[in-house]
Amino acid sequence: MKLKLLSTKPIIRLRNILDTATVLFWVLLFIGFQSNAQELTLNNALSHKENSIIKIASYTAQGDLENLKIALHDGLDNKLTVNQIKEVLVHLYAYAGFPRSIRGLQTFLQVLEDRKNTEILDERGVEASPITDSRDKYDRGKEILETLVGRSLDGPKPAYQEFSPEMDRFLKEHLFADIFERDVLTHKQRELVTISVIASLGTLEPMLKSHLNLSLNVGWQPEQLREFTKVLDGTTTTENAKAAKLILKEVPDNRK
């Protein structure tokens, strides 16, 4: 009696299916790994909006109005609202003075008019909410500053504040209550404006170091701050950008 041999075709097909499934598994695993790596990179990178905030603040602080025009156009194209940019320009007067801030606002108005004439309508964005907190303004400012630095400020005051109590009151009541209390920009965004201005003005290393620490406290990552200093390479002097990089290297060590 002759034995009937089984066909090997089903076995070959099954093997091909398994081989295909294995290849597909590894391809999907690789794609997933790449996606996760890319997402991690993107999460640690500054956004286009944040890059624009740095450039707008830096150029305004230095009075570089021609480059400021370009940065303002880019900021609007990157979907910063009109009110967000206006708030950046208002915020920085506390660090660069009224003249720089006003020239920035005047330049911004010109940019908006130019865009309007070319039929570009930019989003106005939300207006600042009214301040309803009726507590003493000094106490409100002190509370906000304590949130930024991450500790109580009930201990001894710095020498300059002991020497000039007026300066201490102005800082608490105006800078940290009147300005930081406004909600168009977050505290995180306001710190980005602040370090952009201070670094671009130069020779303000102690204050820059302090605000880089505050920047870490409010959520900026070391990688993002390193990227911030690289943006400065294109907006301010070589000396200022180099100084910012050197100061940043000291900041994480002081936080260990």
Protein architecture, described:
There is one protein chain. This protein has about 260 residues and is mainly alpha-helical. The chain has a domain at about 50-125 and about 185-255: AhpD-like, CATH 1.20.1290.10. About 75% of the residues lie in helices and about 0% in strands. The chain is built from 13 helices and no strands. The protein has helices spanning about 10-45, 50-60, 65-75, 80-90, 95, 100-115, 135-150, 160-165, 165-180, 185-200, 205-215, 220-230, 240-255. Helix 12 (about 220-230) packs antiparallel against helix 13 (about 240-255). The model is unreliable at about 35-40 (pLDDT under 50). This is Carboxymuconolactone decarboxylase. InterPro entries: 4CMD/NDH-1_regulator (IPR052512), AhpD-like (IPR029032), CMD-like (IPR003779). One of its GO terms (molecular function) is peroxiredoxin activity.
Q: What's the CATH class label of the domain at 48-126 and 184-254?
A: Mainly Alpha
What's the helical proportion of residues? over 70%
Per DSSP, what share of the residues sits in E-state strands of 2 or more residues?
under 5%
How many strands in all? 0
CATH topology of the domain at 48-126 and 184-254: AhpD-like
Question: How far from one another are the termini?
Answer: 86 Å
Mean pLDDT across residues: 88
Shape verdict? globular
Radius of gyration: 27 Å
Structural class determined from secondary elements: mainly alpha
What is the helix tally?
Answer: 13
Biggest sheet architecture: none
Order of helices and strands: HHHHHHHHHHHHH
**Shape-level CATH architecture of the domain at 48-126 and 184-254:** Up-down Bundle
Low-confidence stretches: 35-41
**Can you say what the CATH homologous superfamily of the domain at 48-126 and 184-254 is?**
AhpD-like
Protein name: Carboxymuconolactone decarboxylase
Pfam families: CMD
InterPro entries: 4CMD/NDH-1_regulator, AhpD-like, CMD-like
GO molecular function, one term: peroxiredoxin activity
